[in-house]
Write a structure and sequence with these properties.
By secondary structure, the chain is of the alpha/beta class. Helix content is about 20%, strand content about 25%. Strand 4, helix 2 and strand 5 form a beta-alpha-beta unit. The termini are far apart. Keywords: Carbohydrate metabolism, Cellulose degradation, Glycosidase, Hydrolase, Polysaccharide degradation, Signal.
Length: about 500
């Protein structure tokens, strides 16, 4: 079925979409007040997720896949170091990593494949796949990212409709979930486990057949996870069909209204939906004459009502598109609006992790382009309004603010550098980006860049920063999600301007 395409290496789609990008305006006071949220383990209260200090948080993240494939390691490490990958994710304003895996990586001695050790990933040499996961979790925590582990497949051969197969029975699934919960107990970088990816027909919700009822299986597995680590969030996806109404794999949570998941530990449950565009498959709602105005009603019916009725938090664990068609562009713009902008709603919003970071997702592509370095600023720009503040660096069992924490930046004077690059220039206009890098030894709280054109150029739109322009001089200030930079980390702002032919001005950078 169509959903298997995203899990294979195939032809990569390079989208050339023409659209007006949403502006990433200045940081709202609500978001600024919550910038330090995220400490420790998390719990739920109604539709919100709260940190250890009862401050609300918003998951605004990205999927980085590969552990679930025959490589048994996240993809792209054949060309880049894992630390640079994680730092770039953080610099773009994503605050959470969803890491898919298969049960294969829990088999003793499973080794990663396609890792480049030539001046890269040198500390991963000789490690098992699980030990590589440890390293990724550790660096993610030090960078201020949280991690959600996603049991994506029972083995590397492919996805399964049910949570078990003849080769990987339910007992193995639950044993491995408990093993991971135990492995990261005390490390609050790992805040939750997504129990099984995209249950679909013949999986049911609330039918009472223990061999097919995903709701009952999620209760068994969720309670097993919490018996090993009661601090974790348990993330439960939907199914495909409920009472004759079918939708995306894992995207149908209509059954929650009559058959909610019951866990032994209160305030740990988060429901998860997946939603996609036509580059994955056609659905009836895409051809509705009222599209895309019909989409909020579709989402309300399948999963949005859970949030709107204050039943539990809702996390859109996967959504993505190649952005090649106008329909897909309108779908993504409508979904971003539905998920609620951080500037207006703060963390009282839907949670999300975009599919995917990887460019080698056959039917969606990724935030990275085929070189595993360059950011698709068009696709990333769509997400600017729903990105959210990052979290304190650290993890582990101690206070994230403890000066002894490995993520503590130490002392020093804040410093930054900036590089201006023109990505395209067609005479009448141009696109460019400025990459800001923390060049000092201490973490940055915020940054500002400035440049002066020699001609009559004007900024027409900008994302991942706010700006002012006086004459030929432009001053851009970080957005709420990308002002904090660890030592050596980078953030990138992008913009369009007119007319073209402005060349490359020198850029000054100041930091606090």
């Amino acid at each position: 079925m169509f959903r298997s395409l995203r899990r294979t290496l195939g032809a990569l789609c390079a989208a050339a979409a023409v659209l007006v990008l949403p502006l990433a305006g200045g940081a709202p006071s609500a978001a600024a007040a919550e910038a330090a949220a995220g400490a420790g383990y998390w719990h739920t209260n109604g539709r919100q997720i709260l940190d250890a200090n009862n401050q609300s948080v918003r998951i605004a993240g990205i999927n980085w896949f590969g552990f679930e494939t025959a490589n048994h390691v996240p993809h792209g490490l054949w060309s880049r170091d894992y630390k640079s990958m994680i730092d770039q994710i953080r610099s773009l304003g994503y605050n959470t990593l969803r890491i898919p895996y298969s049960d294969d990586i829990l088999k003793p001695g499973t080794m990663p494949d396609s890792l480049n050790f030539d001046g890269k990933n040198t500390d991963l040499r000789g490690l098992t796949s699980l030990q590589v996961l440890d390293k990724i979790v550790a660096h993610a925590g030090q960078s201020g990212l949280k991690v959600i582990l996603d049991r994506h497949r029972p083995d590397a051969a492919g996805q399964s409709a049910l949570w078990y197969t003849s080769a990987v029975p339910e007992t193995t699934w639950i044993t491995n979930l408990k093993a991971l919960a135990t492995r990261y107990k005390g490390d609050s970088t790992v805040v939750g486990i997504d129990l099984h990816n995209e249950p679909h027909d013949p999986a049911c919700w609330g039918c009472g057949d223990t061999a097919r009822d995903w709701r009952l299986a999620a209760e068994r597995a969720g309670n097993a996870v919490l018996s090993a680590n009661p601090d974790l969030l348990v993330l439960v996806e939907g199914v495909q069909s409920y009472n004759g109404v079918s939708g995306w794999w894992g995207g149908n949570l209509m059954g929650v209204a009559d058959h909610p998941v019951r866990l032994d530990v209160p305030n740990r449950l988060v429901y998860s939906a997946h939603d996609y565009a036509t580059s994955v498959a056609q659905q009836s709602w895409f051809s509705d004459p009222n599209f895309p105005d019909n989409m909020p009603g579709v989402w309300d019916r399948y999963w949005g009502y859970i949030f709107k009725q204050n039943i539990a938090p809702v996390w859109v664990g996967e959504f993505g598109t190649t952005l090649q068609s106008t329909v897909d562009q309108r779908w993504l713009a409508a979904l971003v609006t539905y998920l609620r902008s951080t500037s207006t709603h703060g963390n009282d919003s839907f949670h999300w992790t975009f599919w995917s970071w990887n460019p080698n997702s056959g039917d969606t592509g990724g935030i990275l382009k085929d070189d595993w370095q360059t950011v698709d600023t068009v696709k990333d720009g769509y997400l600017a309004s729903i990105k959210a503040p990052g979290f304190p660096p650290g993890g582990g069992s101690g206070d994230p603010g403890d000066p002894g924490d490995p993520g503590d930046p130490g002392g020093g004077t804040p410093a930054c550098t900036a590089v201006y690059t023109v990505s395209s220039d067609w005479g009448g206009g141009f696109n460019a980006e400025v990459k800001v890098t923390n060049s000092g030894a201490t973490a940055l709280k915020s940054w500002k860049v400035s440049w002066t054109w020699s001609g009559s150029q004007k900024v027409t739109t900008m994302w991942n920063a706010s700006y002012t322009q006086s004459g030929a001089t432009v001053t851009a200030t970080n957005a709420a999600h990308n002002g904090a930079l660890a030592a050596g980390a980078s953030a990138t702002l992008g913009f369009g301007g007119a007319p073209g032919g402005g060349g490359v001005p020198s850029v000054s950078c100041t930091a606090t």
